[in-house]
Amino acid sequence: MRIVTALGGNALLKRGEAPSAAAQKANVAAAAAQLAVLGQAGHHLIVTHGNGPQVGLLALQAEAGPPGAAQPLDDLDAESEGWIGYVLEQELANALPAGAEIATLLTRVEVAADDPAFARPSKPIGPVYDEAAARALAAQRGWQVAPDGKFWRRVVPSPAPVAVLNEASLTRLAEAGVVVVCAGGGGIPVTRDAAGKWRGVEAVIDKDAASALLAIRLRADFFMMLTDVEAVYLDYGTPAQRPIRQARPEELAALPFAAGSMGPKVAAACRFARETGRPAAIGRLQDAAAILAGEAGTRIV
């Protein structure tokens, strides 16, 4: 079975955890061990991942450098994709049987230059702050900030993915049985200018939306989003919360989900299920094998 597996940010850095190299490598090693169970069962893996904490950290590091050192977000997207891809590839090589072929591919993803998301930044990146600190940084650095759960974070534009420009190369790798790490952080956002030339743009694409598009285009048999929440919940965060174990896209479309967290995952799962007729699922990283077997998480059919 060909499985596109999208790893949430918790696979690399847990909320509130210090962004040290050691912590991130330990988290990735744990994620790779779970993915290896699927690989050892004979499934072919295509792995995507988030980059919100990492791309925000790179932006802060660049701003702390000499004048003119700050880099545009598309460059930082590429940096984070290479950085995280390297760590994932190494830990997958340690967890999978000897001889497994693994490749990381920097992935350019086309977005529309007139996407309304450019006027409404919504994608959280970087570390979390309390409201006062976030607002002070916004005034100092020209950021836009917004609530993210009980914390606040910097937000940037998140245009919808239109096409995966590396699709042909990814298809060849997948057909050759290579475990591919790709579309990290939603991929590197690019668009055509008035002269028809490809240019990077200041944005971070939603990882789940890009992963759904990739899973559709690569004809995946199963699309799985792994996070730190056991399932999709009704009335999440209240005493009445209860998990949804299985649902159809039209049922989930009628329900409210948080725009910055579960909402994009539900939308991505519904899109994949609608357009392919094949199942998608959302659940905890440590339940990956049980989610595939239909014994955990939320399945969208």
Describe this structure in words.
With 301 residues, the protein is of the alpha/beta class. It has three domains: 10-120 and 161-203 and 214-220, Acetylglutamate kinase-like (Carbamate kinase, 3-Layer(aba) Sandwich), CATH 3.40.1160; 122-156, no CATH class; 223-301, Acetylglutamate kinase-like (Carbamate kinase, 3-Layer(aba) Sandwich), CATH 3.40.1160.10. Helices cover 37% and strands 25% of the residues. It is globular, with a radius of gyration of 18 Å. The chain starts with a strand and ends with a strand. The mean pLDDT is 92.
Order of H and E elements = EHEHHEEEHEEEHEEEHEEEEHHEHE
The strand count comes to: 17
Averaged pLDDT = 92
Biggest beta-sheet profile: 8 strands, mixed
CA radius of gyration is 18 Å
Q: Count the helices. How many?
A: 9
Strand content range = 25-35%
Overall body shape? globular
- Percentage of residues assigned to helices: 25-40%
Structural class: alpha/beta
* Euclidean distance between termini CA atoms: 17 Å
Strand arrangement in the largest pleated sheet = 3-9-2-1-12-16-17-15
Number of domains: 3
Oligomeric composition of the shown chains = single chain
Query: Any idea what the CATH architecture of the largest domain is?
Result: 3-Layer(aba) Sandwich
CATH class of the largest domain: Alpha Beta
CATH topology of the largest domain, what is it called?
Carbamate kinase
The CATH superfamily of the largest domain bears the name Acetylglutamate kinase-like
Low-pLDDT runs: none
